[in-house]
Amino acid sequence: MLTPSPQDLRVALARYADARIEDARRSTDVTARAVEDAAYTLCVMTGTQAVPQALHTADTMLGVRPAVSPALRRTVGAQRDDKLQAV
Question: CA-CA distance, 82 to 7, in Å (whole number)?
């Protein structure tokens, strides 16, 4: 596998983030396709088959540490679920 340059990887990550944000704002066939295209590009660049793996691999390749630990994510997610159920 060829290793992408850090700049190319950052551009692909930004493209994926922008596509996800636009799709969340107002989902259309075009925005959904942009998310799929950006996800595919990330997976190819990182040699993975799924977006979560691609994001993790990209962060590793860039030397980025996760902002939130996996344990904290589970705790925050559980609290959010509890709030939704209580409403």
Answer: 40
